[in-house]
């Protein structure tokens, strides 16, 4: 799956978690812009892992701060 397809799928998965309807860009941060708390992050990561049949390690999760980094990580984990 290419980056555009992964980005579209992640955008649809993020929608129920995006309570403030923040416009998504590669620079959109989960903590500041989307105001995700730790429980929301866990639920969202589980949804991503289920959808793409991947596992995002805790170390990798700690390094992902924005939407663009997440899309890139998912693309990389699929290859």
Question: Tags for this entry?
Answer:
Non-ribosomal Peptide Synthetase Peptidyl Carrier Protein, Chain A, 79 residues, 0% strand, mainly alpha, single chain
Helical coverage, percent range: 55-70%
Question: Would you state the CATH class?
Answer: Mainly Alpha
Q: Estimate the mean pLDDT confidence.
A: 95
Which range does the strand content fall in?
A: under 5%
Give structural notes.
This protein has 79 residues and is an all-alpha fold. The chain has a single domain (3-78), classed as Non-ribosomal Peptide Synthetase Peptidyl Carrier Protein, Chain A (Orthogonal Bundle). Helix content is 57%, strand content 0%. It contains 4 helices and no strands. It has helices at residues 3-14, 38-52, 58-63, 67-78. The longest helix has 15 residues, at 38-52. It is globular, with a radius of gyration of 11 Å.
């Amino acid at each position: 799956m290419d980056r555009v397809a992964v980005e579209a799928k992640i955008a649809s998965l993020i929608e129920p978690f995006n309570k403030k309807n923040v416009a998504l860009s590669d620079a959109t941060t989960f903590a500041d812009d989307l105001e995700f708390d730790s429980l929301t992050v866990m639920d969202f990561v589980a949804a991503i892992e289920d959808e793409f049949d991947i596992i995002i390690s805790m170390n990798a999760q700690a390094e992902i701060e924005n939407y663009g980094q997440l899309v890139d990580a998912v693309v990389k984990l699929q290859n």
